[in-house]
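Write out the 3D structure for:
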Amino acid sequence: MRGVVQTALLLCSSVYVMISFFGFLLFGDGTLDDVLANFDTDLGIPFGSVLNDAVRISYAAHLMLVFPVVFYPLRLNIDGLLFSSSRPLVLDNFRFASVTISLIGVIFLGANFIPSIWDAFQFTGATAAVCIGFIFPAAITLR
């Protein structure tokens, strides 16, 4: 398992570094914080529209492949938080469907009504910073 985690971390880190490096090479000083926002304009290069479409399609494929991986533990944790003394989720089809539909509905509403992804990132970053700085050390100390 250690090798799998190290390989995944290396792969993810190298992809992020390559995206930032090649994004800067492509856009120069005009690189926005969100590199995907740079692809909303005409790049002024040959086959620029094809590159824009390729980036958008790869991002959509990324979201489709990552969502189930993230959604599974989210559903299990929400179920454990709300129904900790109930029987396992896999044995209760009604609860499974209810939790799944509720979470997908909340995610859909958030995706449609949050005006900018940066608002979500700021909320997540602020929450994570407080957890890492104050809550997690105290929780580890209490344990």
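Helices lie at 2-27, 48-82, 93-113, 117-142.
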